[in-house]
Amino acid sequence: MSGIVSVILALGTVPLFVVMVVSAVLLSVALGQDEVPFGSIVISVNSLAKMQLLEALPLFAFGGYLLAYSGAPNRLVRLSNAVLGGLPGGLAIVAIIGCTFLTALTGASGVTIVALGGLLLPALLKQGYPENFSLGTITAGGSLGVLFAPSLPIILYGVVSGVSTDDLFKAGVIPGLLIIATLSVYAAIRGVQCKVPRQAFSWRELGGALWEAKWEIPLPIFLVIGIYRGVFVVSEAAVIATAYIFIIEVIIQRDIKWGRIGAIARESMVLIGGILIILGTTLAVNNAIIDAEITKEMFARVKPYMESKITFLLCLNVFLLIVGCMIDIYAAVVLVVPLILPIAAYYGIHPVHLGIIFLTNLGIGYATPPVGMNLFIATVRFSKPILKLYWACIPFILLLLVMLAVITYCPALSTCVLDDSSVQAPLPEDDPDELLEIEDLGDLDEPLDKEEVDESEYLEYFDDLLDLDGLDKKPQ
Q: Which of 60, 197, 261, 455 is exposed most, by the fewest CB atoms within 10 A?
């Protein structure tokens, strides 16, 4: 009954956090907790204060929005074009890299379309690229920036799943670069087919672009070295990066007037506020799900039809692509991850590898017809019919699906950069008898041996794991 009510609300215009609150209350009542359902929700929301990693979310969002509304995207595009413009499809490759970079910083590819679309689309068309290709490049080209630091979806996935965010940042590098390389090769082929003139390399233009972007160039280098080499943790990187962006874009470059800072801060905090509200209410739903043993029931129903890891991964990708089309990436993380994490681990899927699969699917879903969010943003931004955007994105979606299959079935692409210590699952501190190492669960390459691990004990362990910060599900 609670599921039916939640679905009806979700299909209407009811905000998602209201759907989550109603779902938590109905599930609590169904479990006989009718005296304290709202108390459980309040405790779940309050538990967000214990998650230190969430400090990075508002800071990175504010810094990303400052960068997006400054002149930095124009300067970085000019620099990229000075370096790559002489290659076949050079400007299209610049567009792909620029959109990916800005999406990584803002955590929202829709913001990238708004910020860079007005600059890149006229430039691509002027240079002779077909309109459909140009629209597809901007709409779908940068959606996989969510795999690179300091991506907000990666940070949120780490918070919800308990997986190290540093490990997720490292794991996303090779898959992300492969995707950029694949799209760049396609852009080069299209550039040759359409006989797009190449920009002659000019040392003078390169020098001018380098000088113009001299303040922005250190930022990605600083983030890559600092985060990937462990110089500082994500929350420290967020403070330093945001302060640096503020000083450069507001005080030194003066691209952003002081009077606009309030509006930019408000816009970025609306995004983060929505994420936190959804996350807090979803935690309450997750606790109710654990009490109702819904995860165990789902696992029992799924297992007879998915005996192999390959079948499970195929079904998971189809499911996540649909989710990515229908639900915002932040809501999808907090809603879906707690449900699929224990089931995926049963099939021997490394939790970091699962995170990369998850985010890649949702990134593709952003631009997947018929209801991908980027499609609607692009149709408004460029004043083009939605059907035209569908056709423009299809070639890119097909390429991204091929790369998704490679990422899914080649886990080494995600896990080869991890330390040996990263193969150990996050463990509950309150019950040492339940310690399990992922390497004991099939070495992450084969489904679990049913004789080695008792399924009920295994799922009980993951129920404890997903009960974030030891939060009491039944408040006294």
A: 197
| DSSP SS3 for 441 | coil
Contacts of 229 (CB under 8 A, 6+ apart): none
Residue 414 half-sphere exposure toward CB, CA atoms < 13 A: 32
Place of tokens 């886990």: 411
Residue 250 DSSP symbol? I
- One-letter amino acid identity for 439? E
Which two structure tokens, joined as six digits, stand for 397?
Answer: 């979606």
**DSSP secondary structure letters along 296-359:** HHHHHHHGGG--SHHHHHHHHHHHHHHHHHHS-HHHHHHHHHHHHHHHHHHTT--HHHHHHHHH
* Residue 180 one-letter amino acid: I
What pLDDT, on a 0 to 100 scale, did the predictor assign at position 440? 38
Which candidate, 219, 256, 253, places its Cα nearest to that of 237?
219
Q: What is the pLDDT of residue 190?
A: 92
**Tell me, what DSSP letter sits at residue 230?**
T
**SS3 assignment, position 148:** coil
68: nearest Cα among 2, 124, 117, 15: 117
CB within 8 A of 154, min separation 6: which ones? 146, 147, 165, 168, 169, 172, 355, 359
**Tens digits of per-residue pLDDT, 254-280?**
899 999 999 989 888 887 777 777 666
